[in-house]
Amino acid sequence: NAGVTQTPKFQVLKTGQSMTLQCAQDMNHEYMSWYRQDPGMGLRLIHYSVGAGITDQGEVPNGYNVSRSTTEDFPLRLLSAAPSQTSVYFCASSPMGTSSNQPQHFGDGTRLSIL
Amino acid sequence: DAKTTQPTSMDCAEGRAANLPCNHSTISGNEYVYWYRQIHSQGPQYIIHGLKNNETNEMASLIITEDRKSSTLILPHATLRDTAVYYCISPSSNTGKLIFGQGTTLQVKP
């Protein structure tokens, strides 16, 4: 049981490049989400999904796109990377549909630097 | 989503109990209180959660006041490896969104 798997672990991009951060879970969880964490700061919610085909915005969605075509995968896309998007990105999942009685499981993070 | 308030930092002596407080005065009746911690730059680690009753697991105890406006996370015998940022969070009962605040930086000292 791999849990929540994020790839890549590290990435360096140039301004204006695009890329997709991958997140996969093998626990059949309905709920998945993406956070970013800047140095010395708490986590901020970017986008989340309560099930396949359903996504919604979090606190800081600008500059990011998501889709949820399968239960297992929840990729995060940067269409045109900017230095302000340099951060550590965490993906999380939980079994919940609308119940909040389930803890979220986090991946190990993707460390993204944009030059 | 209930707003939570925590002290910015706390110190604890190794081997002693660490008591981390959290205020969540706007919590609604069906919203849980969750505690996570983050060690260095690792992904947040789930510790414990509760609704009304006090809870205990292998990692910690959670004491929730009767009016549910505040709670305390207790690490009974803190070790140096418990040094971390501890987050008290109450996710939305409708969407499950976790909104992280700044958390409490716990420093366990020898």
Q: What this model shows, in words?
A:
The complex is a heterodimer of chains A (115) and B (110). With 115 residues, chain A is mostly beta strands. Helices cover 0% and strands 49% of the residues of chain A. In chain A, the strands form 2 sheets. In chain A, strands 2, 4, 5, 6, 9, 10 and 11 form a 7-stranded mixed beta sheet that branches. In chain A, strands 1-3-8-7 form a 4-stranded antiparallel beta sheet, with no helix packed on it. Chain A is globular and about 40 Å long. With 110 residues, chain B is mostly beta strands. In chain B, 0% of the residues lie in helices and 43% in strands. Chain B has strands spanning 9-13, 18-23, 33-38, 45-50, 55-56, 61-64, 70-75, 84-89, 104-109. In chain B, the strands form 2 sheets. Chain B has a 5-stranded mixed beta sheet, with no helix packed on it. In chain B, strands 2-7-6-5 form a 4-stranded antiparallel beta sheet, with no helix packed on it. In chain B, strand 6 (61-64) and strand 7 (70-75) form a beta hairpin. Chain B starts with 8 loop residues before the first strand and ends with a strand. The mean pLDDT of chain B is 91. Classes of the chains: A mainly beta (115), B mainly beta (110). The interface between A and B is medium-sized, with 33 and 27 residues.
Which helices and strands, and how do they pair?
The complex is a heterodimer of chains A (115) and B (110).
Chain A lengths: L3 E4 L2 E4 L5 E7 L5 E7 L5 E9 L2 E4 L6 E3 L9 E3 L8 E8 L10 E2 L3 E5 L1
Parallel strand pairs in A: 2-11
Antiparallel strand pairs in A: 1-3, 3-8, 4-5, 4-9, 5-6, 7-8, 9-10, 9-11
Chain B lengths: L8 E5 L4 E6 L9 E6 L6 E6 L4 E2 L4 E4 L5 E6 L8 E6 L14 E6 L1
Parallel strand pairs in B: 1-9
Antiparallel strand pairs in B: 2-7, 3-4, 3-8, 5-6, 6-7, 8-9
Cα distance, first to last residue of chain A? Answer: 36 Å
First-last Cα distance of chain B: 38 Å
Strand portion of chain B: 35-45%
**Poorly predicted runs of chain A:** none
The residue fraction in helices of chain B comes out at: under 10%
Structural class of chain A: mainly beta
